[in-house]
Amino acid sequence: MEESQIQTLFQNSKTFANTGISHSYEWRVEALKRLEKVILLYEKEIIEALRLDLGKSEFEGYVSEVGFTLSEISHTIKKLKKWMRPKKVSSPLIQFPCRSYINFEPLGTVLIIAPWNYPFNLLMAPLIGALSAGNNAILKPSEISVHTSKICEKIISDAFTPEEVIVIQGEVKETTALLELPFDHIFYTGNGSVGRIVMEKAAKNLVPVTLELGGKSPCMVLGENDLEIVGRRIAWGKFFNAGQTCVAPDYIIVEKKKKSALEEAIKNGLNSFYGKEVKSSPDYGRIINERHWNRLKHIIDESEVSYGGDGDKSQKYISPTLINADSSSASMKDEIFGPLLPIVTVENTAEAIEFINSSDKPLACYLFTKDKSVENTVVKKVSSGGLCINDSLVHLSSQTLPFGGVGESGMGRYHGRYSFETFSHQKAVMKRYQIFDILVRYPPYLGKLKIIKWLLKL
After folding, report:
1. Active site includes 212?
2. Which domains does the chain have, with CATH numbers?
3. Fewest beta carbons within 10 Å, which of 40, 42, 188, 416?
4. 254 and 285 in contact (C-beta within 8 Å)?
5. CA quadruple 444, 446, 447, 449: dihedral, nearest 10
6. CA angle, 182 as apex, 176 and 186 as ends, to 5°?
7. Which residues contact 270 (CB under 8 A, 6 or more apart)?
8. pLDDT single digits (tens) 109-132
9. What is the distance, to the nearest Å, from the Cα of residue 224 to the centroid of all Cα atoms in its chain?
10. Is 341 helix (H, G, I), strand (E, B) or coil?
11. Residues 256-264: contacts with CB under 8 Å, at least 24 apart
């Protein structure tokens, strides 16, 4: 699409935003219901597109993409009226008599840029937040997950007018043209390198941004555990979507004496999930494209593989792979984003925490332990976007918890009410009354400073 066409579409969106039509509760709920209706209509096509792009099974496609999105819509519709109410806050005594509250206003026209690993969920979930807050949106799906991007465009065109929500397909040229425009908010999910470009472009127009990035999310196995349960839960979280999840356990930290037993538990979990011939399992996904397959195969070739390590380039298949690793290993240099699981050994909890804190703050952190003292120590001493104790991935499914990063893993938050707040301007409102006036604030000031100091302390 030409830059001039993108600019025209943007201006049409801004014109619609300025009408205020989308500000009402009725429009917001009706827009969400339209989206829900069309998603249900195209459910089978969405699942098939995810299979073609990522080899996702119907179960994974529904649970992590379609079902997640429908649940988010349902939750938002139920809670929206409450979220939209002005939030009363206390007022300082010195301003008596007055009333203070926070009013939630739409930002306007927002840009949502989605990645390829969860190409439906990570486009629609932010859109739900944008619509709930009374905004209209321009969506840029990933050019890599081509089949899902096409069905997303079809869904949006059926559910909305182009002024309300529109999809712009394309690659770097189109994304660059979009980033030059003065949106009211930009929501980007992807890697840190592109995140920096998004933030730099946004800064030129003073556009606020939400960056949902990633990083190497550690998974600690410390103290007492039921290793069979632990191994199964780690294997599920890591190899769901063939490891192409921004919050997948990126590497394991385990005490040396427990390493062998944990490896066996993970293998047992994998065998129960996919059987001995993982490649033939209908439940195991595929790598998104050849470039990423080559990248992962290169890591395997430079690693000490303890389990798995095989692949088929023609099918974009790489088996679940366990790797013996330390801080200098090839698998520990960058986020893996694939079915490779390095295992690092430590002597104790203190060493595990030191290892994690020597790197960038991750998007997620996982801890498996029955030891309350270990749990309390990790909660206090490890900074991460989110922390999940005794499971993996599942904290994302909670609409009452914020999802977002910290430091290199991103900024901003969403899901449930947090999406509504992200796409709203929280306007401070103070209403004073004309019943009487406290004259101490007016000149002449002689003898009044002591009174003011006393009042400010109350």
Report:
1. yes
2. 3-213+407-426 (3.40.605.10), 218-397 (3.40.309.10)
3. 40
4. no
5. 80
6. 70
7. 235, 239, 278, 320
8. 999 999 999 999 999 999 999 999
9. 31
10. strand
11. 256/345, 256/346, 256/347, 258/221, 258/225, 258/227, 259/343, 259/345, 261/227, 262/221, 262/227, 262/230, 262/231, 262/343, 263/306, 263/307, 263/322, 263/343, 264/231
Sign (positive or negative) of CA dihedral 349, 355, 356, 357:
positive
Q: Given its phi and psi angles, is residue 451 left (phi above 0), alpha (psi -120 to 50 degrees) or beta?
A: alpha
Q: H or E element: which one contains 188?
A: strand 185-189
**Phi, psi for 214 (deg, rounded to 5):** -165, -125
Going by DSSP bridges, is the β-strand pair 317-318/311-312 parallel, antiparallel, or unpaired? antiparallel
pLDDT digits (tens, 9 = 90+) for 152-181: 999 999 999 999 999 999 999 999 999 999
Q: In angstroms, rounded to a whole number, what is the distance separating the alpha carbons of residues 289 and 393?
A: 24
Q: For residue 22, give Cα distances in angstroms to 15, 17, 243.
A: 12, 7, 39
Evaluate whether 180 touches 201 at the Cβ level (below 8 Å).
yes
Tell me which residue of 277, 320, 323 sits closest to 303, measured CA to CA.
323
What's the token pair of residue 358? 């020597």
Query: Residue 40 is encoded by which pair of tokens?
Result: 């249900």
pLDDT digits 0-9 by tens, 95-112: 889 999 999 999 999 999
Tokens of 245: 């999840």
Contact 220, 352 (CB under 8 A): yes
CA separation (Å) from 320 to 169, 268, 291, 294, 309? 33, 12, 18, 16, 7
pLDDT tens across 235-256, in order? 999 999 999 999 999 999 999 9
Q: Which of 246, 263, 375, 388 is catalytic?
A: 246
Half-sphere CA count of 221, side-chain side, radius 13 A: 31
| pTM over cut 0.70 | yes
pLDDT one-digit tens code per residue, 361-392 = 999 999 999 999 999 999 999 999 999 999 99
Q: What are the backbone angles phi and psi of residue 344, rounded to the nearest 5°?
A: -110, 135
Which residue spans within 53-174 are E strands per DSSP? 87-89, 98-106, 109-113, 136-140, 165-167
Beta bridge partners of 102: 87, 428
| Active-site residue, 153 included | no
pLDDT of 94: 84
DSSP secondary structure string, 368-395?
A: E-S-HHHHHHHHHH---SEEEESSSSGG
One-letter identity of residue 220:
M
d(CA 137, CA 126) in angstroms, rounded, equals 10
Helix pair angle (372-381, 349-357), 10° resolution: 20
The residue from 60, 72, 174, 212 that is catalytic is 212
